[in-house]
Design a protein that fits this description.
This protein has 3 helices and 4 strands, in the order E-H-E-E-H-H-E. The protein is an alpha+beta fold. It is globular, with a radius of gyration of 14 Å.
Length: 103
Amino acid sequence: MSVTYVVKFQIVPGKYDDFLELLNGVLDAMRHESTFMEAMLHADPDDANRLMLYETWQDHDDVVNVQLLRTYRQAFHEALSAMLAAPRDISIWRCLRADRSTE
């Protein structure tokens, strides 16, 4: 069963571009992983320094034991403490139903 992670980031003012550059590198790399399904990055329309990442993977154990340890994530994880105004808000969700447009 797939697992979805919803991760909210509150970025320190002035660090948005640097943060986004590092995150985009991670997103560009992880899309090639065999257990990756999808990711969507959202911006809060009321707060320019708040982002929400929605990512779905085939297997939670693989994410925890393999994916989070990938070398392409290292610089991003090391920079978080300097770029975030608050710790990440991470929640884990299990899919019950998926509907998508056919167009």
